Amino acid sequence: MSMQCQTQLQRSTITLKGSAQIVSQYFEYAVQSILYQRGVYPSEDFKQKKEYGIMLWVSSDDSLNKYLTTVLSQTKAWLESGKLRQLVLVITDANTSEVMERWTFDVETNQEAVAGGKVPEKAESEIKGEIAGILRQICASVSFLPLLDTRCSIDILVYTDNVDEVPAEWEDSDARNIKNAEVVSLRAFSTKVHNVKTMVAYKAEEVL
Amino acid sequence: KALAASLSVHDSSRILAFKQKAPAAPEGYENSLKSLYNQNLAPTVKKTFRHVPTTQERILDAPELMDDYYLNLLDWSGQNLIAVALGRSVYLWNAASGGVEELCTVPNEGDYISALKWGSDGNFLAVGTSDAKVQIWDANRRKQVRELCGHTNRVSALSWNGAVLSSGSRDSTIANWDVRKRRDEACVARLTVHEQEVCGLEWSLCGQQLASGGNDNVLAIHDASFRLCHKVQAHSAAVKALAWCPYQSNLLATGGGTADRHIRFWNTHTCAMLSAIDTGSQVCALQWNPHARELLSSHGYSKNQLCLWKYPSLEKVAELTGHTGRVLHMATGPDGCGVVTAGADETLRFWRPFGEPPSAKDGDSKLGGGAM
Amino acid sequence: MEWENTKENCVPVRAGRSKAALQELADPAAEALEAKRKELWAQVAEYQGDDPLEAWQKYIKWMQEYGVGGGKADLQKVLETCTKELQRLPRYNNDIRFLRIWIQYADCLPDPGDVFLYLREKDIGRDFALYYEAYATFFELRANFQSADAVYMDGVQRGAKPLERLKQKHTAFQQRMAHRIKRRIQDEQELGPTPVEPVRASLASIGGRPGG
C-alpha cells in the first residue's frame, strides 16, 4: 500500500442487497480465518489474500471452497430477504462427530429495510474497519481456545425465519450445541441494515 | 408449540444445513498448532553452518522483571552500560566492571517502568512509565533532566533519532519530542496510525524512517517529517519486534506474536514484503548481526529459544536455549558480538552468537554501527 | 479492559482458558492473583483428606489459566514437584488425572524421553491411551517411526482406554507414514536422473574433466 491518506468517510445508504453482500463476504472471510487459525485444515493448503486492508489466509482447497461458496450464496439469498437469523460454523471431531467448537454469527435485520423503508447512512470504509477488527480478534482467539487435538470436520448451520420452501439440497438439522460450554463474545459490526454479532463456544474440559 | 412459545422460539424458525458436507481434514492430518503447546515438538536444527556458541556465557538474576510482551525493558549503551527495568526501578549494569547501580524508581506503589532506550551517544537514557510519563536521565550524573507529559496511558516503546525522542503508548499514539525545545513546545508531532497499544518503535539507522508496530497487528512506516508512508497488516498478531538492517538502509525485519509467529522482511521504500518465515512461536525481539548477513530472533512459547537465521536464505543457523521463560528483550553490545537477553524467567543471559567481527582492514563502519 | 489488549500475554493452554480467566488476565490485579495462588497452594500444602491429587490438579489448572502475571512459581517446577510428591502413592498409578500431570510435565521438557521410560518402568498410566499417544508422538517427531509404531501397537494390545481413540490415532499415524513413503518415492521419481548423475560425475573426474 502506498501513501495512505485519511480515507474520506463517504457516507451513503446501504441497500438491503448491498448489505447482504457485505455480510456474506464477512461470513466467508471469517470462516476461512477460523479454519486457518484453528488449524482445522493443513496450513499448506492456505494462501494469503488481502481484504479489508489486512492480509488474510484463505484455503486453496477446491472441494472446501466449493462447499463454502454454495452454502454462502444461499445464505446471501436469505440475508437479502431478511430471513437469516444466525449462521453457525460447527467444528466437529471427524471420527466421532462430537462438536468441539461452535462459532455463532448472530444477524439482526433492520425490518424497516426489509419493508423498503429508509435506513441511516454509514460509510463503507467504517464498516470494513469494524470487520477488520473482528477478524483480528479471531486471530487472537488462540489466547483462550483449546488445541483441537484431533482430525476435524466442519458443518455450517443456518437459522432462518419464515422460510417456506427449503431448497432440495438443504435439510433440517439440530442445533448441535456444546454441553457446559464456555462462551466468549467478539466484537460486532453493523451496516445499519444488518447488525452482526460474533461469538465462540468451546469445551473447557479435557478431552482424554 | 406451547413449549416453543414459552422458550420464545418462533415456530417459523428452522435450523438448516446443506446436505452435502464439507470435506474433513485429510486422513492422518495433525494440527500443526500443537507445537505451540509442547516444548519438545518443533524439529531442531542440523548444525551445518559455522560454529555458533549456543550456551550463555553468564547469567544474572533479574528479579521482578515483568512478564509483559508489550514492554521494552532492556538496552545496551555505546558506553557499555546495560539498562534494565525491574518492576519500579531502573538499574545500570556496567558490562566492563560488573558493577551495578540503581538509576531511578517510580514513586507510587503499583506503578512500574514500562520502557527504556539509550540515546546514541550513551549519555542519556529515555525512560517510560506506567503512569504515562517519559523521562530523560543523564546517565553520568544520575540525574533526571526532562519529564515529558502528554500520553494518557503507559509508555511502552521508545526510540531516539538525534535530538528527537519518539514514544509509543498504550493510548495508541506515538508522540515525537524534540528534547532541545521548551517543555510546552517539545511535542513536535503526534501520530495516530495505530488503534491499540504501540509496542514496537524503531528509527532507521540513518534516521530517515520510523517503523512502529502495535497490538492492532499494524506495521507503520513514517518518514523523518512524520508523514505516514505505509501502513500494512500482514502480521496476524501484535508487532513488537522491529530491526533495521545495518547494511541495507531500507531493509526492515519485523516479528509477529503468538497467532502469527512469522518474521517478515520489508523494503520500506516500496513496502513490498521481500520474504517471510514461520518460526513456530511468538517472536519477541530481533537483532541483526552487525557484521554478517544474519538475524537473531528471540521467542516465547513454547521453546523460549533464540534462533539465528541466515539472510536472505532464511536457513536456521543455530538455536540457542537456556531461558526457561519467554525471551522478551534483546540488545547487542557495543562490540557487535555480545548479545544480552532478558527472559520471563527473571534472568539476564549473555551470549556470543555473532562471532568475531572481520578484521577492520576495510573499516566498514556501517556494518559496525548496529550496536544501539 | 478488553481481553484483546493483552492477547500476547496469554500463553496458549492446551485445554483452553475459561472466560473468567480471560477477563481476569485482561486487567490483572497482581495482588489478588497472588492471594488466590497462595490460597490454592495452601490447599495443596495443608491437604488432609485421602485424595491430595485433587488439590494439586486445581492448583495446576489455575497456574495454567492464570499463570502470566499471577505468582512467580513456574508451571514446570510445580508439575515436577507434584509428580515427585505423588508418585509415592501407588494408587495414583492407574489414575488418568495423575497421568495427565505427568504428560503436561513431559510437554514442558525439551527432551522428555526419560519421563516416558520412567512411567513405563513404574507402570504409571499403563492402561490409558494418552500415555501411548504422547510417547508415540515423541518418537514420530524425532523421525523414529518404528518406535512410534511399536508404542501404538503396544497400547492397542494392552487395550488402553479409550481404545477407539488410540486405534484412530494409530491409523492416522500409519496414514502419515504412507504419505511420507509416497512422497519419498515421488521425490525420487521427479529427480529421476539422480542415480545416474553421480556415476557420470565420478567418471568425468577420473577422466580429469573439470567438475561442473
Topology:
The complex is a heterotrimer of chains A (208), B (372) and C (212).
Chain A: E1 11-12, H1 16-37, E2 46-51, E3 54-59, H2 62-80, E4 84-93, E5 99-109, H3 111-114, E6 122-123, H4 124-140, E7 152-161, E8 170-172, E9 181-190, E10 194-203
Antiparallel strand pairs in A: 1-6, 2-3, 4-5, 4-7, 5-10, 9-10
Helix pairs in contact in A: 1-2, 1-4
Chain B: H1 2-6, E1 13-18, E2 58-61, E3 74-76, E4 81-86, E5 89-94, E6 100-105, E7 113-118, E8 124-129, E9 133-138, E10 143-149, E11 155-161, E12 164-169, E13 174-178, E14 187-191, E15 198-203, E16 209-214, E17 219-223, E18 228-232, E19 239-244, E20 251-256, E21 262-267, E22 272-278, E23 283-288, E24 294-299, E25 306-310, E26 316-320, E27 327-332, E28 339-343, E29 347-351, H2 365-368
Antiparallel strand pairs in B: 2-29, 3-4, 4-5, 5-6, 7-8, 8-9, 9-10, 11-12, 12-13, 13-14, 15-16, 16-17, 17-18, 19-20, 20-21, 21-22, 23-24, 24-25, 25-26, 27-28, 28-29
Chain C: H1 19-26, H2 30-45, H3 52-66, H4 75-86, H5 96-108, H6 113-121, H7 129-141, H8 145-158, H9 163-190, H10 196-206
Can you put this structure into words, describing what you see?
- Chain A is 30% helix and 34% strand.
- By secondary structure, chain A is α+β, with helices and mostly antiparallel strands.
- Chain A has one domain: Cell Cycle, Spindle Assembly Checkpoint Protein, Chain A (2-Layer Sandwich), CATH 3.30.900.
- In chain A, strands 7-4-5-10-9 form a 5-stranded antiparallel beta sheet. A two-stranded antiparallel sheet of chain A has the order 1-6. A two-stranded antiparallel ribbon of chain A has the order 2-3.
- In chain A, helix 1 packs antiparallel against helix 2 and helix 1 runs parallel beside helix 4.
- By secondary structure, chain B is mainly β.
- Chain B is built from 2 helices and 29 strands.
- The N and C termini of chain B lie far apart (73 Å).
- The N terminus and C terminus of chain B are likely disordered.
- Chain C is globular and about 65 Å long.
- Chain C has 10 helices and no strands.
- By secondary structure, chain C is mostly helical.
- Chains in contact: A-B, A-C, B-C.
